[in-house]
Amino acid sequence: MSGFPSRPLASHMRQPSLSGSAGGQSPALVARVNEKKAELENLKELRDLSAAVATQMEALEQKLATLSDGTEAIALVLSNWHNVLRAINMASAKLPKPAAQPEKAEEPPLPQTLVRIPTEHAPALQAHAEGQAEEESG
């Protein structure tokens, strides 16, 4: 014979557990197995719900990034309004004041056409415009 033991192999292998049979299994062990199965189901549900929350948070992150970009664009536009209103005021200041004659049906003159000028020349142009305004008023 060989040097291997001749014990039957079936005694070393674990028998598959049958949930319903209490033959050879203690009720405490069956209860513990059922408890672990319920815990596993709860963990699977928690995993699925966590994945759904993670997906919703990613979508929220994208929406907030879009909202942030839009807010920055609006802030940029609003920061330019002061300059736009100042330019309109300057153009309107050059208009002659209409006479208070109600019988005339003429439309009042419109402000001068506004032209976009690079901002690097803005201080010099503003000083020039103020100098002309002082010359006209003086």
Automatic annotation (TrEMBL):
UniProt source species: Parathielavia appendiculata
Protein family per UniProt: Belongs to the DASH complex DAD2 family.
Full protein name: DASH complex subunit DAD2
Annotated keywords: Cell cycle, Cell division, Centromere, Chromosome, Chromosome partition, Cytoplasm, Cytoskeleton, Kinetochore, Microtubule, Mitosis, Nucleus
Domain of life: Eukaryota
Compartment annotation: Chromosome, Centromere, Kinetochore; Cytoplasm, Cytoskeleton, Spindle; Nucleus
Biological process, per Gene Ontology: attachment of spindle microtubules to kinetochore; cell division; mitotic cell cycle
Gene Ontology cellular component list: DASH complex; microtubule; mitotic spindle midzone; mitotic spindle pole body
InterPro entries: DASH_Dad2
Signal sequence bounds: none
Classification lineage: Eukaryota, Fungi, Dikarya, Ascomycota, Pezizomycotina
Region annotated Disordered, chain positions: 1-28
